[in-house]
Specification:
The structure holds 3 protein chains of 3 kinds.
Chain A (H helix, E strand, L loop, with lengths): L2 H4 L2 H24 L6 H4 L19 H15 L3 H11 L3 H27 L7
Helix pairs in contact in A: 5-6
Chain B lengths: L1 H6 L1 H19 L7 H23 L8 H4 L6 H21 L2 H4 L6 H18 L3 H19 L6 H32 L4 H10 L3 H19 L7 H8 L2 H26 L3 H4 L5 H21 L4 H22 L2 E2 L3 E2 L3 H20 L3 E2 L2 E2 L3 H4 L2 H4 L1 H15 L5 H15 L6 H27 L12 H19 L2 H11 L11 H4 L3 H8 L1
Chain C lengths: L5 H21 L3 H26 L3 H31 L13
Classes of the chains: A mainly alpha, B mainly alpha, C mainly alpha.
């Protein structure tokens, strides 16, 4: 067996233990557990809070808008990480460091223009 | 640095104009009509056009800073593309200012989206790196997805936007898969480095994957058969000026990017000898695209759909220009006919869609042939311009379209690397079929009695848009010397063909800094 | 690269890409189609990172970052378009969106 393959033996053991544990619990439950079916037993949260309404009903589309803004602005932060990681290296060449600094703030500036637009459009207001 | 920024001015100006008018819109009085935003956009784009002209006159520039040079090339090829895209964007904007209120979809974002879409197209044609090209493509596409559905109260527009979005995003997936393998095979995404790598190494299996994926991706963007099915629906549902932008701008940008990618990066001899040579594939795609586009255009009842199919068939003719071109010294593009043809086609279609924008009022549009009946009696000038555009698209002298076809066919017959005579013969037959449906428009406009009173928009800026386009089409067709000289200049390609390879040494910007730091 | 050979990553990425492609071509629910497209993009990211790891450089990571950011922008626009489709048709089934003739 190759060395590279031996590395993965723990993963295999882990998989086996997990499957055995889950399979065992389900089987034992099925064999030993009492079987009395009624409405209360079938509720999603047995002995918890009573359900107020079906979770399948629609919710306000405004959540969608906020969610989208979050995703768009959040994902843009992906560019900050490599920049921040490399910035200390770039500091040793001051000319390039200023360029890198300026470029990132230009990028953030354009992003904030987007935020200004969103705010002026009234998309951040809840009503 | 400062010199580089000055050289990048066309892109920077367009970007600032886009951001500026976006804010102008939200800070302006909401009750005021948005027309003035359109005019501000036109002025901004004109400034960018002037900057492009200045750079083009100097014959293309080299970017000195490595971090710019690895991403963008400002050769005459790119600058020619800039100028064409900017002109198309200006004409689109002019055609829109009165179209939007009459179609009840006047929101200020429209103009910034048009400007951002143009920015994306410009980045695409100037890209020296596949990542830059991809980002440009997406800036363009995302803006166009929104613009396609801009008449959001119309179910047609929403359907158009959805189709365009799904197929566009699907094609992007293929493009990226191809890009990933370019990177895997060469370790770089810079076009020159990729070209250099493939000049020395056999592309092999990766080469086949790359070629197939890239052809599918670009096939969708240029609407080549069999990747064309979205085109008529999207053109019909979109606002008419935006259909013009798609036909004139998006296609120009996609073709120029395609030419640059395939001729620069995959132009090597080894790519010709692959089991699937992209030149062969484009050869057959060109035949299919011309023929299918033309035949389906004949049976259309709706003028916008007819123009959509006609734009498909034109993609076929332009592909001939691509097949006939050959890269010289890694980067240069031979075949100036391609550029002349793109100019003629872009201006004729943008103009034709600007005329079509007139048909309709109060949120209604009726663009069937029947509604064109008697158009010439009420709008003599617009009808005359439409005749010019139809003649140009059909390839009838003395318009630019005729000369474009002539030059592309000459290039194809002069090509030594492949026998393109059959392709040219198919194209000539197709051009003759094309004359039928283009003439049909003219017949309806001039020789039919108006069926009923039809609603049209009367708008001076719209008239300026198609008037200017018609003027350019006729002038380029009758006195073509200057335009041919420009096309030849654009075709000489990269002024830095030899020095651009030095990009290989600067491709990794942080690396030299990191090593000196030790 | 320790352990898993490159070809396995490429196979996994290609299979995921294929699943996405088939999803786009066969599914009729707009949201599922959209998710399939996202799956294609993420399959490409996986391939890029595998290549980058094999070569030990960062260009692949850069492209992957751009793909992530662009996918977010596409998601914003795409979901907005699907939302307007729903407003018009009360359905996100692609078969219901057939106003334009073929």
């Amino acid at each position: 067996m190759l060395d590279s393959q031996i590395e993965y033996i723990p993963v295999l053991i882990m998989l086996a233990i997990c499957s055995a544990a889950i399979g065992g619990m389900l089987t034992l439950n099925f064999l030993l557990g009492p079987k009395r079916k009624n409405a209360i037993k079938n509720a999603p949260f047995e002995s918890g809070e009573k359900q107020i309404h079906s979770p399948k009903r629609r919710f306000s589309v405004k959540f969608y808008l906020v969610g989208i803004f979050f995703i768009v602005f959040d994902i843009e932060a992906v560019f900050l990480f490599p920049w921040a990681t490399l910035y200390r290296q770039w500091l040793r060449d001051p000319a390039f460091a200023w360029v890198a600094f300026g470029e990132m703030f230009l990028f953030l500036g354009i992003l904030s223009l987007g935020l200004v637009y969103v705010w002026r459009r009234g998309a951040l207001e809840w009503d | 640095m400062a010199a580089d920024l000055a050289h990048l001015s066309p892109l920077l100006i367009v970007c600032c104009v886009g951001l500026g008018i976006l804010l102008l819109d939200v800070f302006a009085d909401p009750k005021q009509p948005k027309t003035f935003i359109g005019y501000v956009a036109v002025v901004g784009l004109l400034v960018a056009l002037a900057a492009t002209g200045w750079l083009f006159a100097t014959g293309g520039v080299l970017l000195t800073q490595p971090y710019f040079a690895v991403a963008l090339t400002l050769d005459p090829f790119a600058l020619f593309g800039f100028a064409l895209i900017l002109v198309v964007a200006i004409l689109t904007t002019l055609a829109s200012v009165h179209y939007l209120p009459s179609q009840r979809c006047e929101w200020g974002e429209y103009y910034s989206l048009v400007v951002f879409a143009s920015l994306g197209m410009m980045v695409m044609v100037a890209a020296a790196d596949l990542i830059t090209m991809f980002v440009g493509l997406e800036i363009m596409s995302v803006a166009i997805y929104v613009l396609a559905g801009f008449k959001r109260q119309s179910p047609f527009a929403i359907e158009a936007a959805m189709k365009y979005f799904f197929l566009g995003a699907f094609a992007t997936g293929f493009l990226l898969y191809g890009l990933a393998f370019v990177y895997g095979a060469t370790g770089s995404t810079n076009l020159n480095v990729v070209a250099e790598h493939f000049a020395k190494n056999d592309p092999g299996l990766y080469g086949i994957v790359i070629v197939i994926m890239m052809i599918v991706a670009f096939g969708f963007k240029i609407a080549a058969v069999p990747f064309h099915m979205w085109t008529p629906d999207v053109y019909e549902g979109s606002p008419s000026p935006i259909a013009g932008l798609m036909a004139g701008g998006v296609k120009t940008a996609a073709f120029l990017a395609l030419a640059r990618v395939f001729l620069t990066a995959f132009g090597g001899a080894d790519f010709e000898n692959l089991a699937i040579s992209w030149r062969e594939v484009f050869y057959w795609l060109a035949i299919l695209t011309m023929t299918v586009g033309n035949i389906l255009a004949v049976v259309q009842q709706n003028v916008k759909r007819m123009l959509a199919y006609s734009s498909i068939s034109h993609a076929g003719y332009i592909l001939i220009g691509i097949v006939a071109s050959r890269s010289v010294d890694g980067g240069a593009v031979a075949g100036s006919g391609l550029f002349f043809y793109l100019l003629a086609y872009a201006l004729s279609s943008v103009g034709a869609f600007a005329v079509v924008s007139m048909l309709g009022k109060d949120g209604e549009e009726d663009i069937t042939y029947g509604n064109l009946a008697g158009f010439a009696y009420r709008h003599g000038f617009a009808a005359l311009c439409m005749v010019i555009f139809m003649a140009s698209l059909a390839g009838i002298p003395p318009t630019a379209g005729f000369l474009g076809k002539y030059l592309v066919f000459t290039d194809a017959l002069a090509a030594t690397h492949m026998n393109l005579l059959p392709l040219v013969l198919v194209a000539v037959v197709n051009s003759m079929i094309g004359v039928y449906y283009y003439l049909k428009v003219i017949v309806f406009m001039y020789m039919r009695e108006p069926r009923r009173e039809f609603e049209t928009i009367r708008s001076v800026p719209m008239g300026i848009a198609f008037g200017l386009a018609a003027l350019v089409v006729v002038v380029c067709g009758s006195f073509p010397d200057t335009t041919i000289r420009w096309s030849a200049k654009a075709a000489t390609g990269n002024p830095s063909a030899d020095s651009a390879i030095s990009a290989a040494s600067v491709i990794d910007v942080p690396a030299p800094v990191a090593t000196t730091a030790k | 690269m320790s352990g898993i050979p490159l070809s396995w990553w490429l196979t996994l990425g290609t299979v995921l890409f294929g699943v996405g492609t088939i999803g786009v071509l066969t599914r009729r629910n707009a949201l599922v189609v959209f998710m399939s497209i996202e799956l294609m993009l993420n399959a490409v990211n996986l391939i890029l990172l595998a290549f980058a790891r094999q070569r030990g450089d960062e260009h692949g990571h850069v492209l992957a970052f751009f793909i992530i950011a662009v996918a977010a922008a596409e998601a914003a626009v795409g979901l907005a378009i699907i939302l307007s489709v729903f407003r018009h048709k009360r359905s996100v089934n692609l078969d219901d969106v057939r106003a334009l003739k073929h």
